[in-house]
């Protein structure tokens, strides 16, 4: 289930219907730690259940919006319950 969501997010798709709640959408944030290499990480979570995954050491695709690590520290995120994407 997570694999399909992750691939869609990596393609830049937004407002992906949540597979975890009929009224939810999948939210995502790409964060870049190094602008030169575009190396960073990705957070994805369901807007209703707050179930999510964290993918680290990721080269952020060119076709997506991102935050720098400094910008990320200034945003208010919900309390996401991170799960292993292989467990679901």
Topology:
Elements: H1 2-10, E1 16-17, E2 25-34, E3 39-46, E4 51-59, E5 67-68, H2 69-72, E6 81-82
Parallel strand pairs: 2-5, 4-6
Antiparallel strand pairs: 1-2, 2-3, 3-4
Short description:
The protein has 88 residues and is mainly beta. 15% of the residues lie in helices and 38% in strands.
Q: What would you note in describing this structure?
A:
This protein is mainly β. It has one domain (2-82). It contains two helices and six strands. It has helices at 2-10, 69-72; strands spanning 16-17, 25-34, 39-46, 51-59, 67-68, 81-82. Strands 1, 2, 3, 4, 5 and 6 form a six-stranded mixed beta sheet that branches. A hairpin with a 4-residue loop joins β2 and β3.
Name the overall outline. globular
Topology, number of strands: 6
Query: Rg to the nearest angstrom?
Result: 13 Å
Regions with little confidence, pLDDT below 50 for 5+ residues: none
The helix content is 10-25%
User: How do the SSEs run, as a string of H and E?
Assistant: HEEEEEHE
Please tell me the total number of domains: 1
Largest sheet: 6 strands, mixed
Mean of residue pLDDT values:
94
Alpha-beta classification: mainly beta
What is the strand content?
A: 35-45%
Roughly how many Å apart are the termini?
Answer: 7 Å
Task: Please work out how many helical segments DSSP would assign.
Answer: 2
């Amino acid at each position: 289930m997570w694999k399909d969501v992750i691939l869609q997010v990596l393609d830049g798709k937004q407002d992906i219907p949540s597979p975890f709640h009929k009224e939810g959408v999948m939210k995502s944030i790409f964060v870049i730690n190094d602008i030169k290499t575009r190396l960073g990480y990705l957070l994805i979570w369901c807007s209703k259940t707050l179930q999510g995954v964290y993918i680290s050491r990721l080269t952020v695709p060119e076709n997506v919006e991102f935050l720098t690590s400094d910008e990320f520290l200034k945003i208010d995120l919900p309390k996401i319950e991170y799960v292993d994407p292989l467990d679901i």
